[in-house]
Every structure is written in C-alpha cells, then in structure tokens.
Fold each of these.
Amino acid sequence: VHDCRIKYGIYLLYSIRPKELEPTQYSIHIDIFEKISLKYRGSWLVPLNYSFLPVHRIATELTIPREKNGLDTCLDKNCIHGGCVTYANSLVGKSFCRCHQGWSGWYCTIPYDCTCSSDSLCIGKAANKRPVCICPVEKFGSRCLLGNLAHDIDQNSTCQNGGQYIPLNGNNALERKFICVCRKGFTGNQCERVGSKIIITFHKDIVLPESMLVHF
C-alpha cells in the first residue's frame, strides 16, 4: 500500500487446499514493512469465518504501532531459525515464528533458496515454492528484478521542500507514478504548500498556568 488515502480491494484465492471433510479455521497473515528501509514493523492475523473464501468479504483496518514501542516478542514457541513475535492485533497474545531469511515452516526448520534480487528481502516461501520478496522502492516484480523507470526522474523536480520521493510500482493502475512523503510543516501532492499553523504568544508579564483550554 503506497497511499493511505486510497482504499484497496484485493481478491484472495487459495493456491492449494485439499478438500477436507472436517471444517478448518483459516486466517490471513499480514506483514508490514517500511518502504524506504524495509524495516519490519509488525504482523496482523485476520480470521476467516467461512472455509469458502470468495463468499467472505473482509473489511479491516490495520493500526501500525509506533516505532518507539518496539515489537511484542514472546517465549511460547521454540523458533529454531527465527524469533517468536506476537500479532499486533491479538488480544490474547497469539504468536508465530518469524523466520530468518532462508528458513520457513511453523518453527523455521525448513530451508529454502532465495532467488529474490540481492537488494530485497526474502520473508518466506509461497505455495508454488517461490520465495516471497519485499522490494526496495526502485524495484518491483515477483522477484524484485524489474526496475522502476519512475525512479530515474529528477527527484528535486517532483517533491519540493525536502519531501521524500516514492515511485509507485510499474504495474499499478493509478495515473500517478510517484507519491511524496512530506516533511513536517508541508503538505500537497508535491509538498508544495506550507501547512496551516497557529502561533500564539503571550505578554511577558502574564503568568501562564501549567495547562489551559484554547477554543477557536
């Protein structure tokens, strides 16, 4: 997701699933990474109420925890080549093993070869035995091997006032080829506008209390 102001509709299908006689509880596992640094920020678990996925519409809102809060780690799982992490939206402390690169499985005991580009992240293996790749801003594709032409644009001519230039994937359906992450105090599609602010000053002889209520 590149723009938090846009709602995304994604169709999910089971890639491989046996026809089970007994009902099984399925869930959707969601990982969040920072786009620039590729730093891991947390995971969410969204349960499915029906085994037949196409009839289940899922509307969920992900609240990304503040970076200073850190990750909620746990000790209830023996993760051989990884670490135990608690889901960010779990009220009962449900956890999972987050595996190191090159390892997969419930307890990170299954090795696999990473064929993603060298500047990307491998975070697991899909059902088709291909690695799941997290691409840097200038790459896209299933293995992050495709270059983004929008990244070659002069960033100073697109994002103003020190805004961070983020190219969008080459296969996205949006007309915009990039977005700008603005510095504090600036706004607009290209950070071209100064954000609204109110400066309040008091006479030096006025004794200010510890707190006050200001109404506009």
Amino acid sequence: MTHILVVDNHGQFTHLEHRLLRDMDGVTVDLTDNTTPPADIDADGLVLSGGPTMADIGHCREYLTLDVPILGVCLGHQLIADELGGRIEAGDYGGYADVTVSISDADDPLVGSLAPDTRVWASHADEVVAVPDGFTITAESDICGVEAMGDTDRDLYGVQWHPEVAHTEEGEAVFENFVAICE
C-alpha cells in the first residue's frame, strides 16, 4: 500500500483531495494539519493542499526538505515555487474559472497523460510567474503561464488548478499519476 499524507493548509477543497485518494485502490491516506512537526511525517508522498494565504502554511516550507515526492495544489504549488527560488505574483484574472490547460510536456509523469490539453477548475488570485531552478513548466493556459511545473529529479510537482473538484475533467488522473510517482 502506498501511504499519502494530505497536508491541510485550510483550503476549502482539502477534504476532496483526501476523499479522492482514499477511494483509490492500493492507497492509504491520512489528513494532517500543516502544524505537524516534520519529524512526525511518515508517508510515501505528500499533497500540500490549497489554502487562503501564505501566512498560514505552518511547517510546509520544512516539508520540502523531506525525501518524499510532493504535489502542491494551488497554494501548495505557489509555496513550492516561492520557497525554492521561483516567483509568485497576483494573477491578472483572479477568482475561480473553467480553464483549458495545454500540456507542454507530454512525458511529464504527473500531467503528461493529460496531453494535449484538459479542462480544469482553477483559481488565479495568485500564481507562479517564474519557476525555480530545476523545474520545468509542464502546463500553461491563456490566463496563466505556469499552470503546472515539475522537478523530476527531486519528485516535486505543482498544479495551479484543483484536480480534486468535479469541474476538473481529468483530476483523478493527476492523483493516480502522483501515486505512481510515490510507489
């Protein structure tokens, strides 16, 4: 069994990430608050959930030093970029929207299977505008140049959109691909 830990950054969809992973075969999943000390983290992979603000991310920056694959969703995606030398800014669009995302790296283990494009539910109040060294932009849209990014050497991945919500057409595939990375 692959054990995934969903880190709660107090986003409104965190429970959906937990439920989607819980319902997958071969996966055990737990939900933990972002105040859990890094020494207490024991998992094959982490999902850093979305959330309202970078001011309330607990120990998430420290989790990036753990030797496990990590998937950042929305705020989690932005946090990875910010902590590792990328740049985030306020998005031009803002709010939630149905967005067509173009997959720019069909070989990417997280989003490559969604190529050539997919429809997602995204929030762009803030967004990554420059990826950290070692990362590749793996998806983009008309409203956001970094819809997804990945560093396959460190198994760190992020998506601006919300794969856990029903409005995202192939969201479950993103989580299935992440579990495969963690195995």
Amino acid sequence: MKLILRADVENLGRLGDVVTVKPGFGRNFLLPQGLAMLASDANLKAFELERKKLQAKMDALRTAASDLSAKIAATELVIPVRVGENDKLYGSVTTAIIGDALAEKGVDIDRRRILLDAAIRTLGTHEVRVRLHADVVATLNVKVVAEDKVSDAAEPVVEAEPETPAE
C-alpha cells in the first residue's frame, strides 16, 4: 500500500515522503490517526497545496518542543524513595513516577515520552532522556534520595559564620 506521510513517523519517514507499507499498518494505524493519506494522483496534487500548512505546523511543534526541552534541562527532580539496608531501594523509580514528579513541577509530559532503558534501582543522580518531538530529545537529571534524607537534598545546608565574641 502506497501512502503519503502527513507527519513525521518514527522509523518510517518524514512529512511528504511516499512510502510503501503493509496494508494492515496503513489501514489500522496511519490512516485513522491522520498520519498518512493514500498516494493517488489527486491526493498528490492536494497534498502539495496542503504541504506548506503542514510544514508550518510541524515547525511550530518543533519550536515548542525545543522551548520545553530547555525548561526540562534546567529542572532537577528529587525523588524520595524508601530504602532498606545498605541503601537498597524498595521497588524502583519508573517512568510513571518521573512523569508525576515532572507534573508537580509544572511540566506535563506523557510518561510514554520518557525514555528509560531500565527502571532506576539505585540512589544517586541519573540522566533520563525525554523525547518531546522526533527531532528533539531533552535530558533530565533525576536525583533519587532516601526518604529520610529528603530535607537534606531539597535544601542545601548553609553553615553560619562563627560568631566572634563582642568586646
């Protein structure tokens, strides 16, 4: 089945590409989602007229994703977790937990956009990638701390200057 892509599709092609896909993938996913249209002569002509609008829309999405990427890069999440002996985590830190913590910071991102190779199972600072757009991937610093040490991690300790006795 030959289709014209109306948006960038990961592992398939970019906006305007004419691709050949299996009929089930085209009928069940690409066409209903509005990501593609059948590649006929009439649709090719119609797409050329629509291409500039779609390209402007894609550029706006890319710009918004870049702005959000800068905001995410400046954010450091502190996630408190329960730990047992030898600082071993009970459970792990997953994309859902990271997504909820980001939402609390005012950055609303679908948890499926958070890319973790494996769940985080150790204390410390971890770099987590967030795919915001096909071309934009942000890096987020996630600091996993023990629950009883949350106040230490959230607020840096500032030592007071020693007082000199007044004479």
